Amino acid sequence: MIYLDYQATTPLAPEARDAMLRWLDGPDGQGFGNPHSPHRMGRSAAAAVELARDRVAALFPAGGQVIFTSGATEAINLAIRGTAGKGSIAYSAIEHSATRDTAQSLGKVHELNVAADGQCTIKQDLPDDTRMIAVMQVNNEIGVIQPTAEWHRRAKENNALFLCDAVQAYGKIEVTSADMIAISAHKFHGPKGVGALWVRDGLQLNEVQTGGGQEGGLRGGTLSPALCAGLGAAAHVANGRMGEDADHIAALWLKACDMFDGWELNGSADVRWQGNLNIRKDGIDVARLMSDARDVCFSAGSACSSGSGRPSHVLKAIGLSDKQAKSSIRLGFGRYTSMEDLETGVRSILDAVKEQGL
């Protein structure tokens, strides 16, 4: 099986797995303590959580706090609901449903347009009552990098908050400036079930999830030292090899683009994360393609909406027709993708395309 779906999730880093194991130990290992307990085992677990918090914070801008969550969806909900107030929420037309659906549930929203290359530029109007702007740093479906620093400045000029979904950026490129930033561990070789919301200093959130008052009174519930340690270890590893990873991914990108000669690229070729290759070929039956090339894991659109039968809202937003959107596939590769695996996987896909007479 060849895995080419890094936008959906990434393989767990060995370092993250090792960091987690200690905090899963039973009575003999004494690593199962509650990090909110005052005794020795609890304090030991709490120290592991705080080390993880420091490691995660190292990849964020200076001057903020890290709040652990169950993932980016919860982090985005905390950011939007925790700053709830009167006014509109403006978000790009290519935001993840975690942002779109949460904003819509609160009332007034404004959708920001994107260009054919997938970029959401600041040269567009905002409602006078805009209280928050939400623009992701790297799009999960087409990999296009957004001008988030410019949107942060625009938000300041409009006395609005700026929320950035950095799920596909964190651990891969420098994270943008913002008021709040959401991440998820399993997108950069950490475990599933844990993420974080970074909140700039001076910004006070309202409690959204009531309970035991953990995480500064913002998120009730016992933290998992194992998940936090895995997240922290994944962040620490990414921090130390970001350039090496980027160089490896750039080489994979060039090879993949060369092999898919004649296919159309969805989104900008220049302003993008190169570990995301979203392409289309007129006339292909993507469902049949995924069945015929079943030994290769890749995606038709985003993994979050696969199986819905609806064309991707991202591909529609950049001007593709329903037919073009449904003839698109997404390949994702990264740190643990070998050149041999990439070539074998792409050849398998291309052979399956030939079976369709294309």
Notes on the structure:
The chain has eleven helices and twelve strands. With 358 residues, the protein is an alpha/beta fold. The chain folds into two domains: 2-8 and 241-355, Alpha-Beta Complex (Aspartate Aminotransferase, domain 1); 56-237, Type I PLP-dependent aspartate aminotransferase-like (Major domain) (Aspartate Aminotransferase, domain 2). Strands 2-8-7-6-5-3-4 form a seven-stranded mixed beta sheet, sandwiched between helices. The protein has a three-stranded antiparallel beta sheet with strand order 9-10-12, with helices on one face. The protein is globular and about 70 Å long. The protein starts with a strand and ends with a helix.
Per-chain topology:
Blueprint: E1 2-3, H1 14-21, H2 40-57, E2 64-69, H3 72-81, E3 88-92, H4 97-105, E4 109-112, E5 130-134, H5 148-157, E6 161-165, E7 180-184, E8 195-200, H6 214-217, H7 225-259, E9 264-265, E10 276-280, H8 286-292, E11 296-297, H9 313-317, H10 322-325, E12 328-332, H11 339-355
Parallel strand pairs: 1-11, 3-4, 3-5, 5-6, 6-7
Antiparallel strand pairs: 2-8, 7-8, 9-10, 10-12
Helix pairs in contact: 1-7, 2-7, 3-4, 7-11
